[in-house]
């Protein structure tokens, strides 16, 4: 699949780190570093603009190492970039740690996964087909 992209950043395009990687790292495109205090959030720009085909979305997800080691995550994970959006890709980061975190220019801040999605048409009905699980949710399986 080929996707049109404009790169106004100072960095290389997102790429897959391994042959089996689902996501590509997104990098901060900053003039000045950002100090993200505990429990603060910020939108970090990437300098990237893209044109996704209809029927696809880009999902912006946390980087597991950044989350596990530093407590930095994507606030609306996964964030969705729709096929008709043409603005700059931004990443909403939040600091869930007890220490300030410095975001530097070029830092890998999130990962992006391109995913196909379906559109649905609702069929309003009076009843739903019964299942063994029924209405059980939120831990109802006992595990």
Mean pLDDT, as a whole number? 95
Radius of gyration: 19 Å
Distance between the termini: 40 Å
| Fraction of residues in H or I helices | under 10%
Major sheet summary line: 4 strands, antiparallel
CATH topology: Deoxyuridine 5'-Triphosphate Nucleotidohydrolase, Chain A
Strand content: 25-35%
CATH-level-4 superfamily name: Deoxyuridine triphosphatase (dUTPase)
CATH class: Mainly Beta
Structure overview:
The chain has one helix at 64-70, and strands at residues 4-7, 24-27, 34-36, 41-45, 48-51, 56-61, 72-74, 79-81, 90-95, 101-103, 108-116. It is mainly β. It has a single domain (4-116), classed as Distorted Sandwich (Deoxyuridine 5'-Triphosphate Nucleotidohydrolase, Chain A), CATH 2.70.40.10. The strands form four sheets. The protein has a four-stranded antiparallel β-sheet with strand order 2-11-6-8, with no helix packed on it. The chain starts with a strand and ends in a 27-residue tail after the last strand.
